[in-house]
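Q: Give me a backbone?
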Amino acid sequence: MKSLSRLWPRVLFSFGLLLITGAAVLRLDTSRSDTAVSTPTAAPVAAREAKQLSYKVVGSYPHDPRAFLQGLLWADNGFYESTGLNGQSSLRRVEFPSGKVLLSRKLPDNIFGEGLVLFDNRLTQITWQNNVALVYDKDTFQPLGQWRYDGEGWGITSDGKSLIMSDGSDTLTFRDPQSFAPLRQIKVTLNGRPLDRLNELEWIDGKVWANVWQTDLIVQIDPQSGAVVSYLDMTGLLPASMRAGADVLNGIAYDAKEKRIFVGGKDWPKLFEISLITNVHE
């Protein structure tokens, strides 16, 4: 279960071989939207080796350590968050940089919240095994409707045209933002091998960024081929002094205007702002 990640064996990756030892008018309805994907052709497996990127931490900000962070996005000069666990799942508006929760909506106890995306002033919050995506007004959190889908929901983002969703497998599904119907799928590969456990997603500068669940990795995926072109190893991002009660790395948000990247984790007391290092002397 995603809520019991501390009990799972650690997943270690060798990036040479990927060795795993031991993850208009809104028309909403309740009919299932997962009909056959049109043109269901998978992109060919790309074998080029992924490049490890370097980063530095340029800021850290308070965060609710009881928030089992599932979805994170930046908008309106702050964060919107989806938190998980049955009986604890919520939708939140969080002030930056204080971390204060400005608005919150609790989900029903039987709903396990997952990824979150903003499109056309609407927030769509997917769920783990409830097979439903919940749609809200961004400003009030008032429900606007829901979509049905097959399979699990893990992460979701948007490239500005489609919604992009992960389900824990090596597949990313591109969906119509007006109907949630699947449009196409890509198979994600790392150095030519399938990469699954793709979790929280974020669209950054033409690439899909994804947490790899139960690891300290964030991968950058080509949205056409599905190949991981680069990755970040975030080991040690959360200091040992803050690890008590903390769960795994999860949560990526991008401030496109200021080109700022934020990352966090489940039950982490801090969110971190990172900057990619492009100069080897930096």
Summary: The two ends are 41 Å apart (CA to CA). The chain has no helices and 23 strands. Residues 4-46 have pLDDT under 50 and may be disordered. The domain at 2-277 is CATH 2.40.128.630 (Lipocalin).
